[in-house]
Each structure stands twice: as structure tokens, then as C-alpha cells.
Specification:
Layout: E1 5-6, H1 16-22, H2 32-49, E2 55-58, H3 62-73, E3 78-82, H4 85-96, E4 101-105, H5 114-121, E5 128-132, E6 134-135, E7 140-141, H6 144-148, E8 158-162, H7 174-177, E9 181-185, E10 197-201, H8 203-209, H9 221-228, H10 239-255, H11 257-277, E11 281-282, E12 293-297, H12 309-317, E13 321-322, E14 334-338, H13 345-361
Parallel strand pairs: 1-13, 3-4, 3-5, 5-8, 8-9
Antiparallel strand pairs: 2-10, 6-7, 9-10, 11-12, 12-14
Helix pairs in contact: 1-10, 2-10, 12-13
Bound molecules: pyridoxal-5'-phosphate.
Length: about 350
């Protein structure tokens, strides 16, 4: 069957080159070969995340580390900042872990603002908070620097930040932000196959995790740190992913991070222009639109054009591209177009051409 190219917001299209690296011959994960591989990529990961801390490799999807962060860092109560399907889910996950948890809910499509978080943290009830930088379900980015600045006022609160669909596409400087955990699954903006999550922790987070009695084993941050000091992981990692990540990181630095950020900005603007050209409005609040995907309003909010999203998706798929027909409660009343990963103006133009011809049939 002919491959349908992914323009959904994760997993995204994986290049031949990445797959080739992924399929490198297997080596032992306690041997010098693997340690050398991790030693090579560690400084690249640190540069990418803007940190002097070690960056850890977790063989899991993002939810593993998202849940693990709560197990390691929430002892009193966690504030879950909620603005879409993934961030809303984090509250549920906290409760399933037996944690005392409270949601700070804003309407889907709105960002989370520092002022609202400040009011909650001022109660003194919370020792941790969860925040999704780029809420993938609604295509909305929250102002992470503005929120991270609250750390100065609440140094004992652990700031856990999910950058699953933004890391590598926008600058995220962990040490400057001063947050406690930054994580990303790599099947989105990294354009790797699903199954690997990268994350880092502040010294304060590691100190706090060390006092958590029920942090488990698989996602024990102290185990990750201890092993990472020797370029290893607590349990057998996906060695294939480590090879693929090494290949990808070389690509990032060959392109240059600034150029990579600029490319995402450009291709995202092109997608917004495509939507406007067809009379659509965007779902997110103006000024907080994601730059890695575009969540097009298709009736979820007043204004703009409305089409049959399922048909649009079908007609585009017939031309070899998979787009997303909306997520959760805004399925069908929005649709999403991803410009994450390796996409360039030239490859995005191929998608717009397919979308144009599909629109002509609606
Ligand atoms: C996709 C996504 C997740 C969940 O990732 P999994 O790989 O399915 O665990 C979490 N957060 C955000 C922002 C996402 O886009």
C-alpha cells in the first residue's frame, strides 16, 4: 500500500535517514559502544534544552515521564493547569496516582496565564504544578517564560513542564526558565518514531525526588540521574531510538537551532495563510497560536468557514497526506495541520496543493 504522509500533530513523518539510523545493528546497553553513543549526544541534548543538567532518555511515551514526575515530585498537592485534552488528562492521571490534585481550568483555546497560577499558588496548598507548553489538542501555546517567572515567588513549588509538541521548534532554555522538569516525547517535534522521551530535572527536583518514598522504579528520577552520570539508563533502553536521536541531533545542529526555529515559524505562518485564504479562522485565542501545528476553527467558535472535516480529511488522504480531523470534544468542529519535524516551505506547499484540490471538491 502506498504510504500516506503524516501531517497529523504526532506522530509525524519520519525520514528515511532517521529510519536508517534507527535500524543500526544492536549493541549492549552496558557496553562502551552505548556509553560512547550517549556521551556524544549528551552535550547536544544539553545545548538543545539550554541546560547544564544531565538530559535523561526514557524508553516510554511522554505519559510515562508525565506520570513519573508526579510520583517523584508531588508530596502535598499538585496544581494541574488545564486548557485542552492533554493538560486536562494530567489531572486525571494525578488522581489515579493517588495524589491530591486540583485543576486550574481555562476554556479550550485559551492560554494559561501567570496571574491565574499566582492566585492558586498563593494559597500555599501546592508543592507542584503541571503545565503543557504547547497544548496539541487545541494548537495553543501558553507563555512559559511568564509562568516560569513565578518560580522566584514560589521556589519550593516544583514546576513540571511538558514541551512534547514544541521542543526543538521553539527556544526552550531550561536553566534560564528555572523550572524543575522539562520533558518531550520524540514522535512529535523531534520527528522520531514513537517510544522515546527526553527530560531533564533541576537540582531541587532531584533533591525532592530523593525524599519521595513511593516513586517506584521505572520512572525513578534518582535512578535516571545515577545511571546518566555513566551514560546509561536504569533499564534496557530502546537502543534503536538512541541511534535515531543521535542522527537527528546532528541534523538539528547542522541546520542550526535558530534556523530551525525560523523554519517552523515560516511554515506555520504559511499554514495560517492557507486557512485565511479559504475563509477559515483559527481556534486558539489570538496571540497564543502554536507554531508547530495549526488548529483551524471549523464551527467550534463563531466566525469563519465551516466544511465537512471528515470529507476534507478523506479527499486529502486520497492524495497521499494524512491530516487530523480534530481531537476530543472539538473533533470535527476543528481540524489540525502539523508543520513539525522536517517540513520545509517546499513540502508544506505540497500539502496546501492537496488541501486546495480537496476544498474545491467540498
Ligand atoms: C502527544 C502528547 C502527549 C502524550 O504523548 P504520548 O506519547 O502519547 O504519551 C502529551 N502531551 C502533549 C502536549 C502531547 O502533544
Amino acid at each position: 500500500m502506498a504510504h500516506v504522509k503524516l501531517h497529523i500533530p504526532g506522530p509525524v513523518e519520519v525520514s528515511e535517514k532517521t529510519f536508517k539510523a534507527f535500524c543500526s545493528p544492536m549493541i549492549g546497553h552496558r557496553g562502551q559502544g552505548y556509553k560512547d553513543l550517549v556521551a556524544k549526544i549528551q552535550p547536544q541534548l544539553q545545548a538543545l534544552l539550554g541546560t547544564k543538567q544531565l538530559v535523561y532518555l526514557s524508553t516510554s511515551s511522554a505519559w510515562g515521564v508525565m506520570e513519573g514526575a508526579l510520583r517523584n515530585l508531588t508530596q502535598k498537592k499538585v496544581l494541574c493547569c488545564m486548557k485542552g485534552a492533554f493538560s486536562d488528562k494530567w489531572l486525571d492521571v494525578a488522581k489515579r496516582c493517588g495524589k491530591d490534585a486540583e485543576g486550574l481550568q481555562v476554556p479550550w483555546g485559551s492560554p494559561i496565564r501567570a496571574e491565574a497560577i499566582d492566585a492558586k499558588l498563593a494559597t500555599g496548598q501546592f508543592d507542584s504544578l503541571t503545565l503543557i507548553h504547547n497544548e496539541t489538542s487545541t494548537g495553543t501555546m501558553s507563555p512559559v517564560a511568564e509562568i516560569a517567572a513565578l518560580k522566584a515567588k514560589y521556589p519550593d513549588v516544583m514546576f513540571i513542564v511538558d514541551a512534547v509538541s514544541s521542543m526543538t521548534a521553539v527556544p526552550l532554555n531550561f536553566d534560564t526558565l528555572g523550572i524543575d522538569v522539562l520533558l518531550a516525547g520524540t514522535q512529535k517535534a523531534f520527528a522520531l518514531p514513537p517510544g522515546l522521551t527526553v527530560f531533564t530535572c533541576s537540582p531541587a527536583a532531584l533533591a525532592k525526588a530523593a525524599t519521595a518514598k513511593d516513586r517506584g522504579y521505572y520512572f525513578d528520577f534518582i535512578e535516571f540521574d545515577k545511571n546518566a552520570k555513566e551514560n546509561m539508563t536504569p533499564s534496557t533502553p530502546s537502543i534503536s531510538h538512541t541511534y535515531a536521536l543521535a542522527s537527528k541531533l546532528d541534523e538539528f545542529f547542522a541546520e542550526g537551532l535558530e534556523a530551525r526555529y525560523a523554519r517552523h515559524k515560516q511554515t506555520n505562518q504559511m499554514t495560517r495563510d492557507w486557512a485565511a485564504k479559504h475563509g477559515f479562522t483559527l481556534f486558539p485565542e489570538a496571540g497564543f497560536e502554536s507554531i508547530t501545528l495549526t488548529c483551524v476553527n471549523n464551527g467550534a467558535k463563531p466566525g469563519g468557514r465551516v466544511v465537512d472535516a471528515a470529507k476534507l480529511q478523506k479527499f486529502v488522504k486520497e492524495q497521499g497526506f494524512l491530516i487530523d480531523g480534530g481531537y476530543g470534544k472539538i473533533k470535527g468542529t476543528t481540524f489540525r495541520l502539523s508543520n513539525m519535524g522536517d517540513e520545509t516551505p517546499a513540502t508544506m506547499n505540497q500539502l496546501y496543493a492537496a488541501l486546495d484540490s480537496a476544498m474545491a471538491k467540498l
